[in-house]
Amino acid sequence: MRCQRMLVPALALVLVVVPALSARAQGEEVPRGPTFAARALQALIDGVQFGVIIAITSVGLSLIFGTIHLINFAHGEFVTIGATFAFFLNVSAGGPGWHLVPAALAAVVFGALLGGAVERGIWRPLRARGTGLINMFIVTIGLSLLLRHVVLVLYGTRPASYAQYDIQSVIELGPAGITPRDLTVTLLAVLVLLGIAVLLQKTRIGTAVRAVSANRDLAEASGIDVQRVVLFVWMLGGGLAALGGVFFGLVEIVTWDMGFKLLLLMFAGVILGGLGSAYGAMVGSLVIGVVAQMSTLWFPVDLQYAWALLVLIVVLLVRPQGILGRAERVG
Amino acid sequence: MDFSAILTDALRSGIGPIAAVYALAAMGLNLHFGYTGLLNFGQVGFMLVGGYGLAITVSTYDGPMWLGVLGGIACAIVLALLLGLPTLRLRADYLAITTIAAGETLRLFYRSGWAEPVTGGVFGLQRFANDFYALSPIEPGTYGVWLVRFSSRDLWVMIVGWVLVLVVGCLLALLIHSPWGRVIRSIREDEVAARSLGKNVYAYKMQSLVLGGVIGAVAGMMQAIQVQSVNPDNYDPGVTFFLYTLLVLGGAGRILGPVVGSILFWFVLSFLDSALRQAIDAEYISPDLISTSEVGAVRFALVGVALILLVAFRPQGILGSRKEMLLSGR
User: Fold this and answer.
1) Cβ of residue A261 closer than 8 Å to a chain B Cβ
2) Which residues 6+ apart lie within 8 Å of B281 measured at CB?
């Protein structure tokens, strides 16, 4: 319900503003260079595309936080590992040279297995030892350092592109444009996000995830296997992060530290939406993506991520529980 | 393999100026994390404003160096207030995410083309610490014992750096064993209990954040002075992670923890670096497996492993007491 209340105005805004902007832009003759409206529309399209990719990666981060209250600093590395794993399968230098689609699917499976492996291999034993949350938080930093530099050794510092969909002609959308590749990525990402919503709302495991997020002890007392739910959330988070990594590598470029750069934007999206809420992470990430791209209309491009992070700090000042989060105060 | 070269490299880094800078920055972090339980993941941001505060005053505006030092400290106080005001009332992890975001935001702003006239952008600023070196009483030349030798400049920075560590250490020891110190440790143990005794937890946390941030800024200044340059890319979030590693290694919540941690951290890091390079040169490790250019990355991966193992098996570090450091986040 809360989620719908917020989504409707947001959707209305997009539906009203976009046609209005594009209509205005189409009415005018474009003498030299794109008009402000055209640039704004282009930035909005880029922003939505960037936002849904961040959303895919950050849903897992938020669900993990919701179930075991751990902020996973290594989540960015799951993104990088997904992107580079697909790269190895896809680009034939030393790899099998698969087409990108099966390579991406394999990367998602690999990401899910990796998520499951760190849950079984690190977090579950640590929880069994009674390690405090803050200590576990520091362990995720160690894991992030480890994974990032293992990728650096295996992959190297050179940015690279996938073998397919590299060069494409732009589809004209009024004054703005989008490549078929980017359009496909955006639509696929939206479909995946809808799929996660259905999963959380309609399936047994989704209901169990929401129950554990709402009240872990009560869920356990009602006979929900909390360990299994946590394992599922880690696998889901790992798989989604890997998929987001492939998408991000596809629309941008594959680098060894791409996930770490994305991590702070994921945090911004997750906090903006409300820490622990999956729908909050989606809405928050969308806002962060749009803010980052739209800021380039007025400010230098090299500051676009900085504005997104500033939004995070401002939100904490005004509404620390985020857009969709529950108010919770200590002190 | 030349073991004496490996050992002297390691010793030189273990007692060198960088170890002193990191010890100092980690002492500020120790006040935040070890004593007050604040998760500051943007200590590098305080180092950045300290270093740039000094560099901008002297290099961009031709100001005197003492004014730069005051400017850097003032920037750190403002930054701590900006970070603390919204987040210190919230759950511990909000501060963590905000501080890391703030550190990275600062870095992006300082390195942007927009700020270039003041901060030098991606090129940074250079040669602003001549006044500091002019004060040096040490005659030019190299000094040292056996193969561990330092230039007179490095020696001067080292002496000042370790004296600062000593002074800040004594100051912190006095503070921690004062009533103020008891209150911040009680906040770490049980915030609700501290509040129920009538303590203004928010104000105490803020004081701790400001004081630790200022110590971090002083460390940032020493680092900037040592290399006579500031560059935005030296202030990435990884620096804070190293500070946490050495703090957990030495023992959080102990006055000497960050000092012992920093010396050991730089000793081990340099030892690994040197040993790996020599092993590759001597072909004990196949260059196909790890090439010389990848040694840096392998080193950092090992830091990650060390951090995981330390927290899992010895969270109190070398000096800490286990009972005191069983932190549990809320």
Assistant:
1) no
2) B292
